[in-house]
Amino acid sequence: MSLKEQVDGMHSDQSDIARVTRSKAEAERGYDRLSRWYDLLAEGSERRARDAALRMLGAREGETVLEIGFGTGHGIVALAQGVGTSGRVYGIDLSPGMLRVAEARVRKAGLSERVQLQLGDATRLPFREGFFNAVFLSFVLELFDTPEIPVVLAECRRVLRMGGRIGVVALSKQGRPGMAARLYEWAHRRFPALVDCRPIHVRRAVQQAGFQPMEVAETSMWWLPVEIVVARKG
Q1: What is the CATH number of domain 3-233?
Q2: Model pLDDT, residue 16
């Protein structure tokens, strides 16, 4: 199946997903403004699901791992500790402000020699095919507009080695939405620049991208359902 067929098929399967209408430039400016305060606003709520996903992904000594949308760098530090001195961790993010904060966190942890961070767009990853053992995305995939989700996952699959792992944490549309989810989606549609992400069909998207789920967990954040999916490139 071609990438266009994957995109068209996934778009029709996820027609109940709210669209993302803000531009990449708007997202970059927004996260630049938030970068110095992001941990105060979001780290407390995101940490539990992110750390659970990192344990499920299980970065190993000597592996080469990529984090997409590394934000303020907490996941990058954990991955760098997991791959050890013989491993390597790469990160890509849209925001120069987040890059500065994450680089400072990596330096403070004494891990700069095994970490390489850069700016970039996950729809066009600047890495060769089969370069990574694992790819990690935490509260990132739901920031992309619906037609871009399969493109991002196809790029993840391209840069993963055969048998490589992907770990995704995202707001989930699994099951019947509760009041909190309905209010959140209303806020996303009404104020897209402020509420820039929305729940998506996480496991379905990962499977449609050609990955084989290994472990799936469900949790919540602000009374919103969150899904953690770790899958393998077959």
Answers
A1: 3.40.50.150
A2: 83
